[in-house]
């Protein structure tokens, strides 16, 4: 008989499956979705500021698009492209605007997103009670 594994399974403390739909997204897929959203936001801001470069207007565009997309659809365009969604603390409920705003503001600082827990969730997700999962 094999001794029980002492290995921590990602998402176990959140009641999420080990793999497949509803399991925690990998760092690389979350980072890829972030890059897509950042580039798309820069392009949107560039349309407004052309012929000048968008500069900090990209941050405003990123914040608005991210908050609105999370509240309305539960995923950003980058998340959709990578097959991810934001899991809410109450399954089936729509994300409260304050959670989307706080999560996005912390994500825009970038450092909280890089501080992860044992499950691989960033500080911005821990503070808002959310998790990025596979769709």
Provide a brief overview of the structure.
With 135 residues, the protein is mainly alpha-helical.
Tell me about this structure.
The protein is mostly helical and 135 residues long. It contains six helices and two strands, in the order H-H-H-E-H-H-H-E. A two-stranded antiparallel sheet has the order 1-2. It is elongated.
| Strand ordering within the main sheet | 1-2
Helix percent band: 40-55%
Total helix count?
6
Tally of DSSP β-strands = 2
Q: Low-confidence segments, ≥5 residues, pLDDT <50?
A: none
- Principal-axis shape: elongated
Indicate the proportion of strand residues: 5-15%
The major beta sheet can be summarized as: 2 strands, antiparallel
Radius of gyration: 16 Å
Output mean pLDDT.
88
Order of helices and strands: HHHEHHHE
Q: Terminal Cα separation, in Å? A: 36 Å
User: How would you classify the helix and strand content by structural class?
Assistant: mainly alpha
List keywords for this structure.
50% helix; 2 strands; mainly alpha; two-stranded antiparallel ribbon
Topology:
Layout: H1 27-49, H2 57-73, H3 77-81, E1 84-87, H4 97-109, H5 111-114, H6 123-128, E2 131-134
Antiparallel strand pairs: 1-2
Helix pairs in contact: 1-2, 2-4
